[in-house]
Amino acid sequence: MDAQRKETLCAAGIDVDAALARLMGSDALLERFLKKFAADANYARLQAAFDQADRDGAIAASHTLKGMCGNLSMTALFDLFTRQVALLRADDWAAAAALMPDIAQGYARALQAIQACFG
């Protein structure tokens, strides 16, 4: 991966070296999975679940996003989704919802970086 792409992704909270290590050094696989992340509908599902006070939907979407972020070494988002899933499972809806602005910001940064790097 060229230095500019790596820098852009790292600035958005993606640990490129860890992600590449997980993907056996394949830039092509990382690009493919980052594009799939960007196209995935679970973030919209998470927002809708919070809008509709759908606890089960929120848990499902947040948990899925947590896994995706973990696999792609999106460490800041992974940490936020990990906290959110734990709060939702503990029935602390208000605290889980309070994480949404930080999640939205991190998610937007990741999407912008993916778009900038891979179109």
Describe this structure in words.
This protein is an all-alpha fold and 119 residues long. The protein has one domain (3-118): Four Helix Bundle (Hemerythrin (Met), subunit A). Helices cover 81% and strands 0% of the residues. The protein is built from 8 helices and no strands. The protein has helices spanning 3-11, 16-22, 27-39, 42-51, 55-71, 75-89, 93-98, 100-118. Helix 1 runs antiparallel to helix 8, helix 3 packs across helix 8 (100-118) and helix 4 runs antiparallel to helix 5. The model has no long low-confidence stretch (mean pLDDT 97).
Topology (elements, then pairings):
Layout: H1 3-11, H2 16-22, H3 27-39, H4 42-51, H5 55-71, H6 75-89, H7 93-98, H8 100-118
Helix pairs in contact: 1-8, 3-8, 4-5, 5-6, 6-8
Shape: elongated
Largest sheet descriptor: none
CATH topology: Four Helix Bundle (Hemerythrin (Met), subunit A)
Topology order in helix (H) and strand (E) letters: HHHHHHHH
Descriptive tags:
single chain, 119 residues, mainly alpha, Four Helix Bundle (Hemerythrin (Met), subunit A)
